[in-house]
Amino acid sequence: MNISLNKTKMLLALLILLVIITGCTTKNPVSSNENQSISNQNQSTASKTETINETSLEEVTNIPLNPPVEYDPAWPDRAVKSFRGHLVNSCAPDELRDQATTLTTSDGVYLSALVLGSGNKGVLLAHEQGYSICSFLDIGTELADNGYLVIIPEYRNHGASQKIQVNEHIELDADAALNELKRMGAKKVFLAGASCGGTTAIVAGVRQELPIEGLIILSSPAQCSNLDAIPSVKEIKAPSLFVFSPGDYGGSIEKHVRQLYQESGATDKELIVDESGYHGTDMYHMGQDGDVLKSRLIDFVKEEFK
Q1: Cα(122)–Cα(200) distance, rounded to whole angstroms?
Q2: What is the CA radius of gyration of the chain?
Q3: Which residue, 140, 143, 197, is CA-closest to 170?
């Protein structure tokens, strides 16, 4: 009797243990709400990733992507590095240094340049010899704020650009800047330059592919170093503005600018006589009526790009 009872108790205990083990190893079904929650979580994560990628791409698109290069700058005491490692003239304010890039000319010279703004309307601002990117920085930033893609190259042997033995073939610096405008998305271009910068803008402008929308010349000689701008200015049909100041370089600059104006291929062209007595961008930086001239130049670009 006792043995039979004990066997019954053992069988009952084994049955209870089997039920417990079976219950512990059975997977609970996932409810439809939980499935939906997991699906939403995955979609949310993917959406966030796509947004981050799109934002990053958008930010990068507005910044020139040329890699930085190590070289000896022409003016070491004026050259600083941007956060991406590009050399840039210290005259550029901190908030614009991130827009610095390094250009390489066809003869292998490294140039520091600022690329400002965005869009498909490109503007080249070429400074005079002995000056820097900052001679055109005020006009460049205003044009960029108004929807233009502006490049201001610093020419060889100037500022944060490369120091080389002989200061020749500066027209190749304008070539490199115009090539960069095209690479950044410009579909047409406005040419502007001061002194020999204007000479190079004319020469380089007619041998690149983008349609020329206009030309501004400030105190530019018809001939500079090995360059002769007369044959090239004859090919520019776009509206053109030529500015000089009497007495500049003993009157020789007036003679050159008048010659460029006379030989210009544009039917819509104007010759402006600035009475300040200054040269190049100094006419609007230092002249008594400089603000008026500066506004005239900016308005001219806007009018021709409509």
Answers
A1: 17
A2: 33
A3: 197
